[in-house]
Amino acid sequence: MMVRQQRRRGARIATSRHPGGGSARRIVMTALAVGGAILLAGCQSPAERAAEAMAMAQQLASAGQYGPAQQQFDIAVAARDDLPELWMARARNQVALNDYAGAFGSFRNALDQDRTNREALDAVAQLSLATGRLDDARDYATQILSLDPNNMNALLVDATVAFRRGRLDYTEKQIAKIRTLEPDNEAGRVLASQFAQRRGRLAEAQSLIEPIFIAGEGGRELRRQLQSLYERSGNARGLLAIAQRNAAEQPRDPATQLALAKQLLLSGQDRAAAQALDQIHRAAPGDAQRDLTVAMLADVDVAGPTLIAMLATLSPPDPELALAAAQYALARGDYATAERLLAPTARDRQVGPDTADEQGAYALALAGLGRTDDAAGRAKTALQFDDGQTEALMARTLVELAARNIDGALRDARVVAAQSADYAPGSALLSRVFNVAGDKLLADRALFDAINADRNDPIALRQLTTMLVQRGRGDDAIDYARGFTVRNPASVAGWSIRQQLCRQTRDANCTARATAMIARLHGQSAALPATPEDEQLAERDYSDGGDAK
Questions:
Q1: Between 494 and 31, whose confidence is greater?
Q2: What are phi and psi of 188, to 5 degrees?
Q3: Which of 11, 274, 403, 426 has the smallest set of CB atoms within 10 Å of its CB?
Q4: Do 46 and 79 touch, CB atoms closer than 8 A?
């Protein structure tokens, strides 16, 4: 799911401490001293300066101090740029820093100076693939295969480029060769699984990689492919297992931990999900993390009472988590839930720069409940500290609508919508104001703008399909919902919206499939009807003029 851009000011950003212990710090200090000595040693030859800097860089890299090591590598190549082994060492360090663009350049420099360097040739082929340079990746792989027709990495690059270009017959031929040479090659199995999935052979795709995962093995790419297959079948147990494995590998990564919280929530483990969310927000406070949490809750389609009960298991929840939960409720138009979540802390708290977001959200909840006087006062105070605070502007818009001040409401609603094109509640508010003003064309356009800004936002989908049904365009609403679930097969919200639309049109097969997917994603047993032909994801892409089969 795509997440809207950060839209509030003053976001707090959590920063990690510099890694390494005392010995590592001593190495860094030594490196800095030596680096300074190198720069000051004007009597040294370029070769000597390069050798000393490279030696220190390698020492730092061996201690895991890749940042300081990079500085020394830069000093070395500034002194001597004609040493292939120096460029290779620099490139390996850049890979450790996840600087793949820089690593590509360093490997290219090494290759330019030594055309027989197989490590450099292999690296630029793989980095070209990783960075989307498909033509370069294919060319480099072809060079390698001309020297060694059975080179496994080159075969994988060549087959992957063909697969992405839609040349499926050629891909199948290369996969067969890979599987013959190394049947247990993990990357080969993943590619074979992706190919089988593209052909619509989902059982085969799963059987190629699932045993590796069940055995406790398999890298991130294998898990990503298996997750895609589990999502298509609504395999909640498998999705939870993958989320747990990923979270164990990256215990400090908020996105990975949020994915685990989602699966815990879907499996009914509300207390564990609440604890995971609480830890995430304590470790990474701020607007960006709240937006991610709102998107996750929207995807799971958490009801207000469930949300309140879940946070009640914490004593108390982190204020950032409570605010995120309230913002999700506000996005759904559930003002009562939002007010109940915020009242314990926001009701009597003094407004300041650090509480403007909370007070703005509380003001919007009050305005939605019709308590306009209190809402107006709190919105005004919040806007004194942040004149662009989103929920405070939305609260003021509702207050203005209640007072029939259409011009004022339209002014504020336009400001909110302009802050972020993919903030669906802002578009819905603008649509509401336009409807009151009698401009249904612009009202409808605002909702189309929201779904076009983020086609994977279930809140925008719900807003749009509701409008389309009201306009007598139920078939269009079904089309939008169908497309959403094809792109987001593990979205409970998407299937819930589609289920409601299927029932309205009395489409029994569609209703049965949506109902089954909702149950399965919640970990319940339910027979899954066959996927309709027009929804199978075996689309063909022959953009490179490849073979069609």
A1: 494
A2: -65, -40
A3: 403
A4: yes
